[in-house]
User: Fold this.
Amino acid sequence: MTPSSDATRPPDRNARRKARTRAALLSASRHLFAEHGFESTTIAEIAEQADTAIGSFYNYFRTKEDLLAALLEETLAEQLQRMEARRAGVSDVAEAISVAHRHFVRLAYEQPEWAWLLVRLDVPYRISDSVFASSAMTDLKTGIRAGRFHVANPQLSLQASGGAMLAVMHALLLGELGEEADSEHAEGVLRSFGLDREEAAEIARRPLPEQPDAEPPA
Assistant:
């Protein structure tokens, strides 16, 4: 009988413990960054919330910025996957963009801690380097090639629509906007991409596809 290779052998106890500690640090930072912001949160507070020693933090992340990068990569990728599943049956790129923006704006209702995390970090330049922005740019360029969108500067348009989305999410979290904010924001984005007012309004108010069943993030 051939011995198991390293690739097929299940993780040992030490590897499982390390994975749990790393996950605890990410979970703790997510909660603290959402509540207090990135700059106001210390590594000591993160370690305490994760129930681990400060020294252990550096076994997983060199700096608080490294932890933030890992956190953004994990949470943005998770939400991107959920959003893509939600709009899987949508063929019109304009509606697909509407669904994407409405999905993220509605997180201010559905997952306020995650929404506060994104808003309090206030670092759109970090988001612009993520898979999230890559997907959004693909949508925008697809619409331009199809003649649906007309924008002078795709990168500028992408940054403007992303900044508007964060501003709307923030206002919703503060209770300053009503329940139609997701559709109203999506309409504004589509109009900024070149759609006329009536078409943008109709697309932004189509029934939002149901989100596939998924466990909410911890």
The chain has a mean pLDDT of 85. Residues 69-204 form a domain with the Tetracycline Repressor; domain 2 fold (CATH 1.10.357.10). The first helix runs from residue 13 to 36.
